[in-house]
Specification:
Layout (H helix, E strand, L loop, with lengths): L3 H9 L7 H4 L5 E7 L6 H5 L8 H6 L1 E8 L7 H10 L3 H4 L5 E4 L4 E4 L42 H8 L6 E5 L2 H8 L4 E6 L4 E3 L10 H8 L10 E2 L31 E2 L8 H6 L3 H17 L8 E7 L1 H9 L4 H24 L5 E6 L8 H6 L5 E2 L9 H10 L6 E5 L2 E4 L1 H6 L4 H14 L3 E6 H5 L7 H8 L9 E5 L3 E2 L2 E2 L2 E2 L9 H4 E7 L6 E3 L3 E2 L3 H9 L13 H6 L1
Parallel strand pairs: 1-10, 1-11, 2-21, 2-22, 5-6, 5-10, 12-17
Antiparallel strand pairs: 2-20, 3-4, 6-7, 8-9, 11-20, 13-14, 14-16, 15-16, 18-19
Helix pairs in contact: 5-8, 11-13, 12-13, 15-17
């Protein structure tokens, strides 16, 4: 196998000796766990039904920041992960959305896509020739961290230790693995089209043997013809009466009620069903444990870094909502999965030698149907209906056109049709401000802020405008940022209508947990507000290395005092 880390390690082994002096005080491993869509209240809501080895173990030996928030407006997966990794805002690290509109090509741009680094085919397959699609990874346009504009915590660990540190990111989602592994590490993620973990040529030329062995060992196939069943008696769940709520998404073949069948291994949605259940996290943890064993994580006195991003909470939340029987059981199963991962780390490396950091990329909105059941106003917004609103008539009266002015709506951004505006001799700033004014008049839209006003600071300073500004990157952000009213959102996820979503600056989306845990640390809860940009510089200070290049967070004193 050829990869960049192995090459660096071969020439930098002599750098180990000077590091021995501080080795005893520093962890052998930083294990960063990110739970996708773990809203800040969900640990406490479910703690009574967790075991002793998962979340509780982290809390019993850790500092729990119960009032941590993302301070950017677009609380999506890549945005939150990269913020945790870099300690800075999307305005600096550049990952402003899961998708943004590339004005140079006129096409949507997926955050970690990179045509220069195609995904690797299975070992032994000649990628230069036409091959069976089942032998190739899910997409051909490639993946890399090139679009991340700041160094990450994992990068800084590699820099500080002369490239000797082993740095990895693992997740079901490519963006969950790549963002945390940074530019210097190696990322692996799950390909649903193939049912295996993959990577791209950015990281290596061929898979190491252990990856092939894991992929061929039948871990994914083991769920065939089984079901996702409840872990405990139904009446032990808070939401046991909501197993067939009509506001849940009825994904074909998976259903709204327990048990949820995985079906045959070769069925169309088999691997999708795995990710819509605790199975996705179980597979991620299994792969991570093999990585620890095979790559020698924590085997020497130089600090290594492993990110494990668990995605099932997000997928389950989208389909069933965060207040559902499925979400509740998924968290019980995740607690067990985290416990098993920690057991493995303790056996192989020692938790006393490990700093565990846990947080989330974003929270989640409640399902509008559930809120309406409780008498709370909520709903879904259909952006396609804008041409039927009075706003369209106002724009036609002012500019002669309405809907045609919009080139793309890629949540949360509206991108204008630059060519049409030019052809009509209009001023883009005037069009953006007028459209923003009309959008804000529409029901369910709280704010519509033009990038022209953001760039010129021509907006009132509020908590929401600060969050939108933290998300503003001149070349990637849209021409208008749309903020929906609380509990309103566009119910679309990768083309599927979903029950719940995230992506707003409201507290249910910004509030996430932050936990720093290591044996010997006195258990404590900190209720003062902190921000997710604080995480990376705090870990850097704990390791006595420099913070990521764009870091804007504050070092959390409680963590350093615990050291």
């Amino acid at each position: 196998m050829t990869n960049r880390r192995a090459a660096l390690g071969a020439v930098a082994a002599c750098a180990l000796a000077p590091l021995q002096a501080v080795a005893e005080e520093l962890p052998k491993l930083v294990l960063q766990i990110t739970v996708d869509q773990l809203r800040g209240d969900l640990i406490d809501r479910n703690i009574a039904n967790f075991g002793e080895k998962g979340f509780k173990r982290l809390l019993q030996n850790g500092i729990y920041y119960t009032n941590a928030h993302h301070r950017h407006a677009n609380t999506e997966t890549i945005v939150g992960h990269t913020t945790l990794a870099t300690g800075t805002d999307p305005a600096v690290h550049g990952m402003v959305a899961n998708l943004w509109y590339d004005r140079s090509t006129g096409k949507p741009f997926y955050n970690v896509q990179d045509p220069d680094y195609p995904l690797l085919a299975k070992s032994g397959v000649d990628q230069s020739t036409e091959i069976d699609p089942t032998q190739r990874a899910a997409t051909s346009d490639g993946r890399s961290p090139a679009s991340i504009l700041s160094s990450t915590l994992s990068d800084e660990i590699a820099i500080a230790n002369a490239g000797v540190s082993k740095v990895f990111g693992v997740s079901v989602k490519d963006r969950g693995a790549i963002s945390m592994a940074g530019h210097a590490g190696t990322a692996y993620w799950f390909s649903k089209s193939e049912g295996r973990f993959v990577t791209s040529s950015y990281y290596m030329d061929a898979y190491p043997n252990w990856v092939d062995h894991w992929n061929d060992a039948g871990h994914v196939l083991a769920y065939a013809f089984t079901d996702w069943n409840l872990s405990d008696a139904k009446d032990t769940y808070r939401f046991f009466e909501f197993d067939d709520a009509n506001w849940e998404t009825n994904f074909p073949g998976f259903g709204r009620t327990f048990p949820h069948p995985f079906g045959a291994w070769d069925s169309k949605y088999y691997t999708t069903f795995l990710t819509l259940s605790p199975a996705g996290d179980e597979l991620t943890a299994s792969f991570a444990k093999s990585l620890i064993d095979s790559e020698g994580i924590g085997a020497d006195d130089v600090t290594d870094y492993l990110s494990v991003s668990f995605s099932s909470t997000d997928y389950v939340g989208h389909i069933f909502g965060p207040s559902s029987l499925e979400a509740e059981d998924n968290l019980r199963r995740l607690d067990q999965t985290i416990g098993q991962l920690l057991d493995h780390v303790d056996e192989k490396i020692g938790l006393k030698n490990t700093l565990v950091v846990l947080s989330a990329d974003h929270g989640a909105a409640e399902v509008p149907g559930y809120l309406e059941y409780l008498g709370i106003p909520a709903g879904y917004f259909n952006f396609d209906n804008i041409d039927k609103e009075p706003a369209a008539q106002a724009l036609i009266a002012e500019f002669g056109v309405a809907q045609e002015l919009i080139a793309s709506f890629s949540q949360p951004y509206v991108y204008l049709n630059d060519q049409l505006i030019m052809d009509k001799g209009l001023k883009k700033a005037d069009v953006a401000r007028a459209l923003a004014r009309e959008l804000q008049k529409m029901p369910a839209i709280a704010y519509a802020i033009s990038s022209e006003d953001l760039a010129s600071s021509a907006i009132a300073k509020t908590a929401v405008s600060d969050a939108v500004l933290a998300n503003f990157h001149a070349s990637r952000s849209g021409d208008i940022y749309v903020v929906f009213e609380p509990h309103w959102f566009v119910g679309d996820f990768d083309g599927l209508h979903v029950a719940s979503h995230h992506g707003s600056p409201w507290t249910y989306d910004t509030h996430v947990p932050i936990i720093f845990s290591r044996p010997g640390v006195a258990a404590s809860r900190v209720s003062a507000r902190v921000e997710t940009v604080d995480l990376a510089p705090t870990v850097a200070a704990y390791l006595r290395i420099k913070a990521p290049s764009g870091a804007r967070g504050t070092v959390l004193d409680e963590v350093l005092q615990s050291q």
